Amino acid sequence: MEKTGASDKENQAVRNITAGRTRPPTVDERKPLPPKAPPPPPDNKDAGKKDG
After folding, report:
1. Termini Cα distance of the chain
2. Which of 25, 37, 46, 50, by CA, is between 20 and 30 Å from 9?
3. In a 10 Å sphere around its CB, with 0-12 CB exposed, 13-18 middle and 19+ buried, how is residue 45 labelled?
C-alpha cells in the first residue's frame, strides 16, 4: 500500500493506452464519423466553379 493515488492513476492510464493499442478499434472508432460537412469536391473543379 505504498503506492500513491497519483501513481495508481498513471498506471491505469498506461494500462488503458496499451489496451487500446492491442485491442481492435472500439465501436465508436469503427463507425464512420458523422457527416459534419459534405466531402470536399476535387480542388480543380471546385476552384473553377468558385472562380467562374
Report:
1. 72
2. 25
3. exposed
